Amino acid sequence: MEKDFPEHYVTWVMHGELNVLPNSRNIEVIQDAPPFVNLIDLLINEVFGGLRHEGVNTGPSQVAGEEETLHDLSDSNNKDYFELLKEGSEDLYEGSKYSKLKFLLKLYHIKCLFGLSDKGMTMVLDLLRDAFKFVKIPISFYEAKKIINKLCLDYIKIDACPNDCMLYWEDDINAESCKHCHTSRWKPEKDNDLNHVPSTKYMRWHAEDDNKDGNLRHPRDGLAIDGFNPFGATSTNYSIYSVILFPYNLPPWLCMKQSNFILMIIPGPCIVGNNIDVYLQSLIKELNELWSEDVDTFDSSKNEMFKIQATLVWTISDFPRLDSLSGWNMHTGLACPSCNFNAEPCQLRHSRKWCFIGHRQFLSRNYKFRLMRHRFDRNMEERTPPKKLSGSKILQQVKDINVTFGRQSELQKRKRKKNVGENATQQWNKRIIFFHLPYWEFNPFPHNLDPMYIEKNIFDNVIFTLLNDKEKSKDHVKARKDLQDMGIRHDLWVDENDECKFDAFQLLPLAIRNVLPRQVVAALVEFSSLFRQLCLKSLSPVDLDKLQNRIVKTLCHLEILFPPSLFTVMIHLTIYLVDEVKKVAWYIIVGFILSKGNKSQSEGSIAESYIVEEALTFYARYFEEIETRLNRSKRVNDEPSQNEAYEKSSMFPQQGKHVGGFITEPLTHLEETQAHRYVLLNCAVVKPFIE
Asked: Which one of 3, 469, 566, 642 has the lowest number of neighbouring Cβ atoms within 10 Å?
C-alpha cells in the first residue's frame, strides 16, 4: 500500500454508503474532524483566478496572501478583491453566523430561483433594515448588485451606430458621432447597445472519456446565430439577433445547457443583414487573442493553472442567416453555397421561381437514370458532382470585394435598383469578417445549416402540395405550364378545356396511404426515413456513405414524380447534409432565446435574465444548507432518505418510495413461497452459497 490506512477510521462511511448499520450505532467512534472550509473565501479566491502558491497545494480553503495577491492581480482587480474579502469577513450583525456577503449572495440566490423583481427585493431589504436596526445591508437592491457584480457576473455594453456602420469601442470609444454616416451616438428615446455576456474537468471530456469506437457522435466551439421577433405575432417590424457561442469541449449533456452558453445580443428593430460583421468585431478580437496568446486559466479540478487556446470551428444558422454569415447571395439561381458557381441556374418562366433540379449528376457514372431523357429534362446527364471549394479558393474569389457597412437610405436603394440590371447581380456580398481569423481559410466546413430548418421547410413544401393548398401548393396551373415549356411530362400539361387536370398529382394526405399512387408513397416514406437516419445519436462512417447514395436516388425519384416547382433550394441542400455530418458530426441549434420581463426593452430584459441564470448556477456551487437547482430533489426520487432511521438489514437495502397512500395486502402461502424463492435466487449475498 502506498499510504497508511487512516487512524481511528472504524466506520466505513467514505465510499458511497448511504447508512450506518444498526450494530455499529452504539460504538464510540473517534474521527478526526475535517478542516474548516470557508466557502465564501474559496468563492472569492476562485473567481479572481484561483490564486495558489506555485508548486504547493495549499488546500481548497486557504486564501492567498496579500503580497501574492497584489503581485498576481491587475490593479483594476485589486480593489474589488479586497473589498469582497472585507464584505466576506464582516458580520451581518454582532454575533451573526452570516457575513454581509454571504447573506447577500443567499438572498440573491432566492431572487434568481423564484424570479423576484428588483423592486420586490428592494422592499425586502427595506423591511429587514427597519425590523433589525443593527443589520448591515445595502439601502437598495441596486446597491446590493454593485457588490455582487464584483464577482465578475456582468455583461459588457458596447454602443453601436443606429445605422449599423460601426461600434463605439477601442479607438472610437469616446466618439460622439458615427465616422461613416455622422449620425449622433446619443439617442435619448432608445439605446442601441450590444450586450455581450462574458462567461474544467468537463472541458477535457472528449480527450479523456469519449467513446473511441469510430462512430460520429458530438462535435467540439461553434457559433450559432438566429433572429427572432420578441413580440411574437403581435408585431412584424422588430427583429433581435442572438449570437450564441457553444463550448463544444463539454460533454453533450452539458454543451447544450443554457448556463454554458456565451451570449451576444444584437438589438433591433431592423434586420441587421449584411452589417452583422460590424457587431462581430469584439468577438473576432477575443477569438484572435485566444488563438495567438496563451491565456492563463485556473483548472479547479486539478487545482492548477494552465495555458488555454481556443478556435472557432464553424457557424450554424438557418438558411436566411447564412446569407449574412457567409457573404453568399442566397436569392439567385446560384443560391447553393456548396455548388458555388458550378451550378446551372434554372428559372421557371410561369412560376417565376428558381428551381434546383439535376440531381442525377451526383449518381455514379453508369447509373441508368443518367441516360433517361423523357422522365427528366430531355437531356442525358454527363456532369460530375461539383467540387466543394476550399476556404483558400473562396478567399481568392472575395479578395477584391470592398464593402462599406451601414444601412442605405431609400434614395440610395432606388439608385442601386435602377443601375443594377438583371444579369449584373453580384454573387458575393462581402469578404466576411471571419477571414480575420488566421485559421478560417483552412476550415473545410466553415458554415453549416440547421437541419431542423431544412426539414421543416421540406415538410411544408411536400405536405401543402399533397393537401393541394391553394396558396402554398407547388403543383398549380403555372407549374403545369412550366412542364409544357420544358416539353416533359405530357400527361400533366394544362388542358385547354379544363384549365388544369389533376390526375396523378391530385394528391391526398399521406395518412390515406392506400389512395396515393404506390410510387409516390414509396418515395416520400424513403425521404422521411433519411432524416431519421441522419438524426441518430451514433453514426457510422460506412452507414453514412450508403445514406448518401440513398439520398441521391430518392431525389431523382422525386424529380420523376413531382413538378420542378417543388424543388426549392431547401430540398436541394439535403444532398450535402451527409457531408456536413461527416466533418462536423451532428449538432443542435438553439433557435432563439425568448425575451423575459419588459417587452419595451427586450434586449435589456434578455441580458438581465441571462445574468440571473448565470448567477444562480454559479452561486449554487458554494451553498450547502438551501435548495438550489444543483441539489434539489428530482421529480421522481427513488433514493432512500438518509434522515430516516434505517432499521432493516443491509442485505435488502431500501430502494424506492411510495407516493400517496398505501394499503397492506396479505400474501397467500403460495405467494410467500414464490417471493421467498425469488429473493434467494436473486440476492447478491446469497449467490456465493448457491454456487
From this structure: 3
